[in-house]
User: What shape does this take?
Amino acid sequence: MVLLTVLFALRRQIGRGTFVAVVLFILILSPLLSVVPIAAMQYSFVADRWVYQAALPMFALAGAFVVLLTTGDVRDQPSSAAAGRRVSPTLVITAVTLLIGTSILTWQRAAVFASNEQIYADALAKNPTSWFVHNNLGYALIQKGRIADAVYHFDEALRLWDGYVGARMNLAAALALQGDMFAAEEQYRSILQTRPNFVPARVQYGRLMLRDDRSETAEAIFVAALQIEPTSPGALSGLALSRVANRRPLEALAPASAALKQNAFSSDAHHAMGRVLIALGHARRGLGHLQEAVRTGGAHPEVFRDLAWELATSGDDTLRHGETAVELARRAVDAVVQPDARYLKVLAAAWAEFGHYDRAVEVARDGQILAGELGQADLNAHFNLALDTYQRHRPWRQPITPPIDLASVATTLPADGGP
Assistant: This one.
């Protein structure tokens, strides 16, 4: 207020522009002065990028100051007088210098904004103790497949604030991508010890158990999550998937349908419904939901894997498509950081359906070696049979499951292939 009073009193001597510029700056910036709640304020009480608009009148004021330095006069003048006045060479040189200087600075800063990784790396260099930035940088690194570096930053975020649930969730996901299921499980257990009703942690914990082939444990976790939040789409679709894995697809139909009702555009819900319908003998409808799960975006590698398996091995000749199966299977294999024999099983079958039996044999042998190293007896047995099949230039085929009459168990299923 003192500054505004002084500028108002001196408006005849220095011009009204200075007073107006400062008033506009304060008015535009005022919503940030604890008037409007902004999420970022919980991390740092700064105006940050919201100051850009407020800076416009200050830029105008700076321009007037340059004119004052070069011409000695910024007072209001009739337009005719202004038109007849020659532009000062000093003003031109100053303006060009400022333009070149700010352009160089903009070019230098543009490199920082090239990616989220560079933005957060730059922020971390200026504030190395920010748990928030460590977490965000870790997440950006996961998107680029740099899992080990991401784990380091999640660990740093938790060292700075042990109670940061978001960083612990991300750390668990990163550890799972590295194949360290035990360490990932420990992180979820740690979260649930302090926040037992935190449903997102239970859902992700259950999905971890599914990926680790512990479907009975997964089912129990999803049931517990639904006791806390009965309409959780993630818990509903997870429960459906775990019941399919436990060979109880008829019991999986209700939670899969409920998940789709909660979110008709959820990739997870369509994945669950697709798996359920295929297990119940409705392969075409199930395939439609798996395709919808891919189309909606955000699909997990398991979705690409399951869709590729159906396109490669379905007992229905009209549903198979070898080329698409190979493309999806390769995407699934590329998406998992640690080699996984289950994904190699699908890729081998896809190559066989596409007619490339030499590649199918090569991938199946790799899968057999990996399954042997990990002690996966069931997969090892599958690869023994698959190798014999592919070496005789025959594709893998699933038996056709007799369809169950869905009208007797549910009447509100979504339409084929979508919501």
The mean pLDDT is 87. The first helix runs from residue 2 to 9. The CA atoms of residues 342 and 379 lie 7 Å apart.
